[in-house]
């Protein structure tokens, strides 16, 4: 199919690695470093520099895009293990979908857009019980 197809696969796999790493490590910076290392290793293992760079771009998008989801889930009372399990399952599904032509590119674009959407919807402050105290 061509080079564009393998770069798309590795962009999707990198995004999935970023999502899984953020779910496991809960810190965007650590997850970014781990996801970049995994994506570059897979990219150089199965391809050349362009595939490795596609995987690295996907890893950055996946790690930074899923960080607001993980932070919001844990802030609202979600467990670490449950969050890691669900994001790991999402990463497995994302990896499988990356083998469909063009979907790997779309995954790498969709995860940061989801993160931006979640960041905009999050309230700045929680009113808590102060709203119930009004008479």
Describe the structure.
By secondary structure, the chain is mainly alpha-helical. 79% of the residues lie in helices and 0% in strands. It has helices at 3-25, 28-46, 49-75, 80-97, 103-121. Helix 1 (3-25) runs parallel beside helix 3. It is elongated. The model has no long low-confidence stretch (mean pLDDT 88).
What is the overall pLDDT average?
A: 88
- Rg: 17 Å
Along the chain, the helix and strand elements come as HHHHH
Number of strands: 0
Give the proportion of residues in helices: over 70%
Using the alpha-carbon principal axes, give the shape: elongated
Please state the structural category. mainly alpha
Distance between the termini: 68 Å
Largest sheet geometry? none
- Counting copies of identical and different chains, the oligomeric state is single chain
| Percentage of residues in strands | under 5%
**Poorly predicted regions:** none
Number of helices: 5
Produce the secondary structure layout.
Layout: H1 3-25, H2 28-46, H3 49-75, H4 80-97, H5 103-121
Helix pairs in contact: 1-2, 1-3, 1-4, 1-5, 2-3, 3-5
What labels would you give this structure?
135 residues; 79% helix; 5 helices; mainly alpha
What is this entry, summarized?
By secondary structure, the chain is mainly α.
């Amino acid at each position: 199919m061509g080079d564009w197809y393998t770069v798309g696969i590795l962009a999707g796999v990198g995004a999935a690695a970023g999502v899984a790493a953020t779910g496991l490590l809960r810190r965007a910076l650590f997850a970014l470093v781990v996801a970049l290392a995994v994506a570059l290793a897979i990219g150089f293992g199965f391809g050349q520099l362009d595939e490795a760079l596609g995987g690295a771009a996907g890893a950055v998008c996946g790690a930074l895009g899923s960080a607001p989801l993980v932070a919001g889930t844990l802030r609202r009372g979600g467990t670490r293990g449950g969050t890691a399990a669900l994001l790991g399952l999402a990463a497995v599904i994302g990896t499988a979908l990356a083998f469909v032509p063009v979907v790997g590119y779309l995954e790498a674009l969709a995860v940061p857009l989801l993160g931006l959407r979640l960041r905009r919807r999050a309230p700045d402050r929680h009113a808590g019980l102060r709203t119930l105290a009004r008479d």
